Amino acid sequence: MGPSTDALAHPFIMTSTECLQVNMASEDQEIIFSGRQTDSRRYDQPLWPFLRSRMETFGSRVALFMTRMSVEVPIINYPQVDPYTEQQISYKDLIPLAEKLARALMKLGLTQGKPLCIVSRNSVEFALLIVATHSLGAFVHTPNPLSVPGELRRQLGLSEARLVVTTPEFIGNVEEAAKGLNVDVILVGPRDGHLNFEDLVTLASDDVILPPPPVDPKTAIASLLFSSGTTGLPKGVEITQRNIVAWIHQFQDYDGSVLTVDDTTLLFLQLFHAFGQVLILSASLASGCRVVIQTKFEIDEFLSLVSKYKVSKQRTTSDPRVSATYATP
């Protein structure tokens, strides 16, 4: 029986609430929270309608760029910036593209409440697939791409993923990890016998209708991430749709000018980590700012991108050594 929108019942899968309880558990310690009061009822909404309505307001007034990797996908417009190949686009192009990719994924068997596994470094395709998965009401499972085949296989088993997207850099490990499993592989890059990312565009058709959003965003999983395994084997942590909506609201409540349509930010922290995936990508898209994607963190390139693209605001950790750890798989 596959995962549902309810919590995955497994000792190695934890909800984000359980993780918070574990981190705070102490009988002799008093935890005091302070801060401005907020109406948390607005958090109780499905992620995609919330994110979609935000992006619709930015329209064509936000000048962005697209990327082309080694393959040409001429009908795709990206609301991100690639450091190497640029093309100006608008936010409004992301919405139909994400939903088109979602319909293609549905044709391949991905359904609401099921996982799409992505094994990759940062890329525009990675970001697009995250948004497309949200639009379908499915969830993303994003292992560290440097996971050894044994650990990757274990995570595939726990998440029960049946679709894996990867790149030529990691295809060997993915194929070894998926031996004997009922897993289909989609490759972002040159064709080598696997279904290609380009094929998703041709697979999509208007006769496939996206399902309505999940009824309960409190239990609908948006992302399944795994811990580093500091205290044992890596443990899966469920991030719900409500979690992400709440985090976006909380960022904007803290300071409404943190990110605006006039800003450019750099996505250098990896998308397989919650910081890169939620706190930078999702929050940035909800704010309408321009996102520059760095595939792999290197300090010289990082500084060059900040200068070249006039990065105006940047989310990172207080310790650059921690940021470098999160950013470099």
UniProtKB/TrEMBL annotation:
**In which organism is this protein found?**
Pomacea canaliculata (Golden apple snail)
**Mind telling me which InterPro entries this protein's record contains?**
AMP-binding_CS, AMP-dep_synth/lig_dom
UniProt KW keywords:
Ligase
Which Gene3D superfamilies does the UniProt record give? 3.40.50.980
The terms under GO molecular function for this entry are: CoA-ligase activity
Origin superkingdom = Eukaryota
Q: Which family does it belong to?
A: Belongs to the ATP-dependent AMP-binding enzyme family.
The identity of this protein, by name, is AMP-dependent synthetase/ligase domain-containing protein
